[in-house]
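Data availability (excerpt). The following record was deposited with the supplementary files.
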Amino acid sequence: QARLVESGGGKVQAGGSLRLSCQTSGIAFIYHTMSWYRQAPGKERELVASISKDRYTHYGASAKGRFTISRDNERFAAYLQMDNLEPEDTAVYYCNALSSTYADRNYWGQGTQVTVSS
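Predicted structure:
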């Protein structure tokens, strides 16, 4: 059974940093693209960053230059290092695992709250 568990969220002042972790189990981790999405109140869920099984990365416009996505194929985990946080980064952050082979194998975590105060 696939399971994604996010951690590392919390409250931080503007300019601060947080590191989110996504621990997976029950999936063939190395064959999944790992992504972070976020959803702010009243807004649609948006892509923050993704990293393919071959470690190609893609960043949403809001994350470029401030966030770094990484993965550890031995620990079956993905990470999002967030620096220079802004109040506009306040949202629930979700981890996503998408199979590179089977499009219907698309898994989500429960989300972790990030709150940035000015």
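Summary of structural features: Residues 11 and 40 are 15 Å apart (CA to CA).
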